[in-house]
Amino acid sequence: MSLVLLMLATGCAEQAETRVQPALKVLAASQAEFDRNYGDYIAAAFPELEVTVIETNAANPVGITEAQVEQLLQAEQPDLICIAFNPNLYRGLAADGLLTDLSASMKADGLAETDYYAGMIEGLRIDGTLYGLAPTFQTSSIVYNPALFQQYGITPPRNGLTSEELYALANEFALAGSGGAGVAGLHLDHVDRPFDHLWNFGMREGMTLFNMKTGKVTVDTPHWARFVGTLLQSYRLGTFKLRPDESGSGIEQSFNEGKAAMSIEVFNTSELYAFAGVGQERAFPVGKAVGPLGMDSPNRSDDIYFPGVLAIPAGAKETELAWTVTKFLMSDYMAKVWNALSNSNLPSNRAYMKYNDDPVLPGLYELLPKPAFPLDTLNGDYDPKFMTRFGELVNREFEVAVANGIGAKELVRTLQSEGQELLEAHKLAPGTRKRGS
Fold first, then answer.
1. Which PANTHER family match (predicted)?
2. Domains and CATH numbers, the chain
């Protein structure tokens, strides 16, 4: 590969005395981030390649804007872009004609789109054209303790459970008396109070509890009523505590310690924790299942994330060299390297499944990204304190409902009406909009 790079850089590989060291200019967040994500692998594969990193953090430490990227492209003329995947930034650069079409290069080198994770291809294709490639992606799965399911005579989770079905399955442990042994059916880090559970569910489903853009509380829907009913049952059975211990969350080890039957984790996270000495090594084998998935989109998950994207600027001086490096990072060989590192990042190259036989992987590679939660619904002419007050309302009304046997439909109507009054009470006067949390 080094010889190929020299040929690309000089065109004179046959005459060693005239060779010029191949060089590549890369746009990345920082030197450290580039080295961690890509640079070390590039250096090992192409030892003669000189890489210069142009740091976007120098232009904007809190997040580069499209205008700033365009300025850097014009001023520095990098050959390769290696930055965190921002859909709006990526699409904006492509729309402005600043990125190279990689589809032709893939076809010329025999790289079939079907060799890669379909969600990556879908997420980066714009009007039939690929302007970038993501070497890796992350996603989560349901993890469970098979021994606990066997002990309480409960069927383990199947692939494709929805969030609502996951909670219903957790309730079976409470019905089987697991609480007496201090065993919970489900444990989710940093999810404690009723509002936390509703918010977590909404993020996964792409459903809003309220919309500060339109000024409407949006909890009175069949989907919300169904989940609220299941969550009410969870609290009545003791699956969760209405008022958790004062110790707080932190890196909680309830599942690792065998005190919970199920949890949700980024793929390989537990193995990484044990490898790095963070948390407690599990004393039991772990089962995995694909999920939880959306109630209305069973093949999509909101947990899918692309850590970074590679793109070649239009008019780059070293286009062929940049493509050679990109192709290497997307290669079967790099999939093998990722497996050896036990990284939580899954290679977009499906060859990874030849090296890792985890039975959950084929199902994870078939998932597609779910449209992102509409964050713009949190922006409007309302005091940001509303969200805290609404959370307090949810927690209080759940306690009332559990204590008085109130059903899901009545609870949802209360949250809708009182939540709407609360939202209107937090409306700001024109010209006094506040920002921040």
1. ARABINOSE-BINDING PROTEIN-RELATED, DIACETYLCHITOBIOSE BINDING PROTEIN DASA
2. 2-138+305-369 (3.40.190.10), 140-301 (3.40.190.10)
